[in-house]
Amino acid sequence: MAACGGPGPVAIGPGGNSAHSAGAGQSPAPSGIHAATSPSAAPSASPAVQQSVKIFFTAGAKLAPEEDQVSGANPPRDALQLLLRGPKESNLYSDIPQSVQLQSVAVKDGTAFVSFDSSFFSSGGATGTQLRLAQVVYTLTQFSGLTRVQFLQDGKPATVAGGEGFPLNRPLTRQSFPSLQPRQLG
């Protein structure tokens, strides 16, 4: 991964730009993660290659994938943007509130560090909260080398999700959600 000024993770924000330091008005990122701010620090552009992805929505209290395409320089971030837009198919749903804002995505050592605003962490019932988290984990861990997701709230480590107190003190994997396995993969 290209980095500005040296090795290490680079956070990619909603605009696709990367940098090593937080800009004015932004919270500092946790240690080892860098906030996205500077367009001049973006990795050199290469031709966008279209890639098929599965965006994980819900159906009948289980995960259900919907096929889509991403073509940007950061497929994990682009896949999360598709997830936040909601499903195209009328029989699929999302347990992620429509007001949620994706703030950044950074990858380091097989872990995606994903920062959402506080509305992502609002109460959604026990099953809804787990489905919300699982939608993000399954959507991101389909990418080569990504096996875990660490959730951040406004750039800082999140501790719990929802009023139900689902613990977020460690990165989550697909195995964190044994009862929510997708209805169909293929």
Structure characterization notes:
It is a single chain. It contains two helices and nine strands. The strands form three sheets. A five-stranded mixed sheet has the order 1-4-5-6-7. The protein is α+β, with helices and mostly antiparallel strands and 186 residues long. Helix 1 (75-85) runs antiparallel to helix 2 (126-140). The longest helix is centred in the C-terminal third of the chain and has 15 residues, at 126-140. Helix 2 links the parallel strand 5 and strand 6.
Detail the topology: elements first, then pairings.
Elements: E1 11-12, E2 51-59, E3 62-70, H1 75-85, E4 102-108, E5 111-116, H2 126-140, E6 148-153, E7 156-157, E8 160-161, E9 166-167
Report mean pLDDT, rounded to a whole number: 78
How many extended strands? 9
Spell the H/E element sequence.
Answer: EEEHEEHEEEE
Shape: globular
User: In terms of per-residue confidence, which ranges show pLDDT below 50 for 5 or more consecutive residues?
Assistant: 1-44
If helices are DSSP runs of H or I spanning 4 or more residues, what is the number of helices? 2
Percent of residues in helices: 10-25%
Report how far the terminal alpha carbons are from each other.
30 Å
Rg result: 16 Å
Query: Based on helices, strands and strand pairing, what is the structural class?
Result: alpha+beta
The biggest sheet, with number of strands, parallel, antiparallel or mixed sense and barrel status, is: 5 strands, mixed
**What fraction of residues sit in β-strands?**
15-25%
Placed side by side, the strands forming the largest sheet appear as: 1-4-5-6-7
